[in-house]
Description:
This protein has 257 residues and is mainly α. The protein has helices at residues 15-22, 26-35, 54-68, 72-80, 86-121, 128-141, 151-160, 163-181, 191-208, 212-223, 238-254, and strands spanning 13-14, 42-43, 49-51. α3 (54-68) packs across α4 (72-80), α5 (86-121) packs antiparallel against α6 (128-141) and α9 (191-208) packs across α11.
Amino acid sequence: METPTEKPIQRWYKASEFARLTGITVRTLHHYDRLGLLNPSGHTAAGYRLYGERDFARLQQIVILKFIGFPLNQIKEVLDRDSLPLAAALRLQRNLLAEKRRQLDLAVKAIEKVERSLASNGEPDWESFADIIEVINMQNNMEWVKKYYTEEQLQSLAARWSPELQEKASRDWAELLKEVEASLDEDPASEKVQALAARWKELIEAFTGGDPGIEQSLRNLYADQANWPDTFEKPFGNEAVAFISRAMAFRKEKEPS
């Protein structure tokens, strides 16, 4: 007869101990408790806060999302929704941090360029400061895109994203756009242009993951070009989009109903 497996005993931590282990202040814990962001899992008989082992995971998510740039009220909304399984949540956080690292690396390289100029010439290349500003603004300017997607859609996109996939997508789009722009004088119904339209559709589906909601949000984004920031450079010209739209319309007409 097998002996039932005993569940591990939950360990509890007082606020001061939990704060020391995680490197944050007790005052911060109290603040998170008041906001409903991280409520202690228990209390002593005297009413003192007690934190359980799973509170480490909750705090870890708060810290990462705050580092990435989420305000506390938005972090609460994200975490209070149906939570992802731990493995999926960690993968999402890793991808978000990888993107943050990529952005920081670009900013660091731009600053290093100014430092090298200052060291060699005795004064900086003032135009290089424009590169620093451009890099920072480039990251900030992409925040406006998020308003076209729901929080769930953004989480889905981030969970599938990786620096390697982003690099491949950028390369594939650049190659395709070059071929499309070289083919604008050709018949949209031709075999060559139809192949270009098929590749265009495949790249969009690679981004949306086949999710109809994300695809509709993407359409809404491009339908609202009049409200795009002036500093945002369009990834492709209107002529190329119109050309591919005609090719896709022809392709749809030929598909069996």
